[in-house]
Amino acid sequence: MDKELKNIFIHHVYFWLKNADSKTDRDKLVDGLKKLSSVKTIQNFHIGKPADTNREVIETGYAVSWFVQFANGADQASYQTDPIHLKFIEECSHVWSKVIVYDSVDV
Questions:
Q1: Per-residue pLDDT of the chain (107 residues; tens, 9 = 90+)
Q2: pTM here?
Q3: Taking burial as the number of CB atoms within 10 A of a residue's CB, which of 2, 23, 66, 84 is the most buried?
């Protein structure tokens, strides 16, 4: 069985909250991401938080991660301008202080 994912576009976003200890802000962000998952071009998604791992190379400062799989770059590009995505930014951007995005495609 081949476990390798091929011919996909990965969009992985990490969010840092302005109020790092605010459960209310984290819940608002998570609820917003759940709504965002209804964008039609999203194949799969995962909403996460830092795992309980501790090694020098592991970044654990973020509050929430958003992992999204698209079929291709065109689907990811349409997601960026989708009204659901724009509404998410409008409704949730006030809770985060920093966002880092890692997009990747097959080597």
A1: 789 989 999 999 999 999 999 999 999 999 999 999 999 999 999 999 999 999 999 999 999 999 999 999 999 999 999 999 999 999 999 999 999 999 999 99
A2: 0.94
A3: 66
* CATH code at 19-101: 3.30.70.100
Tokens encoding 82: 């989708």
Tokens representing residue 45 in the block: 């998604």
Domain ranges of the chain: 19-101
Which residue(s) pair with 48 in the sheet? 65
d(CA 24, CA 30): 10
Q: In terms of DSSP bridges, do strands 9-17 and 96-105 run parallel, antiparallel, or are they unpaired?
A: antiparallel
What tokens appear for 76 in the block? 């990811």
